[in-house]
Amino acid sequence: MTSGVTAAVWAAGQVARVRDDPAGRTALMGRCYSGPFGRAPRHLPFRRAALSFMGWQVRRGVLRPETSADRPGSPWWRAVNERILRDGCEAVGLSGGLPGPASSPTVGSWLSFVARPTARAWYRAHNGSVVAAYLDHRGLAEAENEAERFFLNVVLCRVLYAHALVAAPRLSLGPLRPLAPLLGDPRLGMTGIFLQLSRVLPDEYPLRGSVRSHLEREIGFGRLLDYGVIVPRLQQLYTWSAGELPAPGLLGCVRDGAPVYAWPYEDRGVWEPRPSPALRLVHRALPPARSARSGP
Predict the structure, then answer these.
(1) Among 71, 145, 240, 274, which residue's Cβ finds the most Cβ atoms within 10 Å?
(2) Does this model's pTM top 0.85?
(3) Total structural domains in the chain?
(4) Burial 148-183, CB ≥16 within 10 A → b, else e
């Protein structure tokens, strides 16, 4: 680290160096979990979830330079990814002795994770950065095509739900709540099931085809998770997440239980699943909780 600069300036410089290098972004994300001095054994296990999500973004090509002639990246995805990287790097700089103060509340959440690396602290930090970036870059999201805008909402729903598995078991899994913290722990491989999007989204950018055409290809666990478990408790999930992170602006991303981030409320019908025996079974087995409290 360079003395004489603030942690925020140092972090911005780190991110700027890899801005047009997807592999460099991935490496920088990994280094954040090694701490300021290259050894952080209690933090390294959390790197699994972060790098898994990074790998999916790299495969899709959304982090490629916007100036690439053959396949430009996504301004929105690049901006969101940079926010996560910058917040994490700044927390590393502050914990390594660079002067502050923290440039945003989300950096403070990362510092809390550094001080006490628990699953709930990781989600508060990671999802806090994600949600802040979503809210800051809504204009960029509006410029994406219809299919991409739909799946931006799917991504947000799933990362919020994974957090609730750990911190709000009753909300997230109802009668099966004893299993929720294990399923959502970012240190374990099971979390990938809830964050995995490769079976829903092709590894390509930009997406081609209509939203319906993509939904028709989504089968099995992904459909049951989204429409059977998450959608029926969406309003509760966003309300709880807005208080947990805290990010009150998140409430503007949902309306009457339908996601509306860069998505018109009038087109909310895409969130209404086609009836099926499997979905009816899931709805009966896992009814939404009456309140969004995070108790056991």
Answers:
(1) 240
(2) yes
(3) 2
(4) bbbbbbbbbbbbbbbbbbbbbbbbbbbeebeebbeb
Given 143, 175, 193, the domain boundary residue is 143
Q: Based on the domain organization, do 133 and 12 belong to the same domain?
A: yes
Confirm if 36 and 92 have CB atoms less than 8 A apart: yes
CA–CA gap between residue 181 and residue 183 (Å, rounded): 6
Strand partners, 255: 258
Evaluate whether residue 148 is within a structural domain.
Answer: no
The 10s digit of each residue's pLDDT in 250-283 is: 999 999 999 999 999 999 999 987 788 888 888 8
Q: What's the domain range around 82?
A: 1-143
161 closest CA partner among 226, 257, 215, 245: 226
Residue that is last in its domain, among 100, 118, 143: 143
Same domain, 161 and 295: yes
